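User: I'll paste a sequence; please echo it back and then give the predicted structure.

Assistant: Echoing your sequence first, then the prediction.
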Amino acid sequence: MHWPTIADHAARVAIVISSVGALVMAVALTFLIIRRDRKERRLATAQATMRALTREIMASLPGGETGEIFAHASDSDRLAAIAHLGQLVRGEDRARLTEFVEENHLLDRIAADARQGSDARRVDAMRQLGVIGGPRAVETLLAILNEDPHLSVRLEAAAMLAPLGALPSPRRLIAALGLEHNLVTRLHRAFFRALAPVHAAELLSLLREDRPPLLRALIVDALGWTEDRAALAALERAADDIDPEVRCAALRAAHQINDPATIPWVMRLLRDASDAVRSNAVRAAAHVAPRQSLPQLETMRGDPSAWVRIRVAEALGPLASAA
């Protein structure tokens, strides 16, 4: 007798729950829409402010005064605008931008961030210093490279100094990055290649010292970028080094130098016992001595190493078409 009443009550409860659920969903959806709208408006306002701030800074670079937008902007907005401009300007405009930053003491905060805080924050600050450049930025980055206890941070400092042409000498860089004991990477090669044109004599001096094989290979590789014929004799000696990594480095340098004086030992290394050396020799020989190396490269189509055979095929394609 009471079942219909209970059923009606349950139905009313279900309707109420559904209505409340729908209302909650509607409120939540409205909240999300409003929040997204506010976020988009803030973003649009921030972008407009950044464009205006960037224009104002550019207008003041020839020596003019900054305006109201710059005066009321936060340090973070000013630095963001400077970093953006630093990626766009070159030459005299870049020098003016650096002067503007130093005159307005904008580097103080970045320099402080680069020296303390989390590694991620410090790396971001160092990248800003690398974009801005200038004597103060270089001084800060060099101090970090020489003094910071963390290798990853020192490596980032070196990476920022390289485009600024402010890396220390090879000997100092070896000490700063611990290259006597740490693994040598392609990034280290890039550093030493950048240093090579102005530090050829020091590289040759380092090569006469007792160094680990991977470090010797790094130095030999850099000799190819010295643009100095005095390096040819050192490369020929490196081609006879007991360590395959050093012989490979000599071949990379020979490829870069592209001097006929390297042909005899490059051709000899086509018969080296190391697969890696033969592979590098194929590339160097095809570049330095294309005609002389063609017959020997043809015989290397059946080399025991698959990687060498691939390199031979890559080299013979252009040589055959040129012939």
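The domain at 77-166 is CATH 1.25.10 (Leucine-rich Repeat Variant). The chain has a mean pLDDT of 87.
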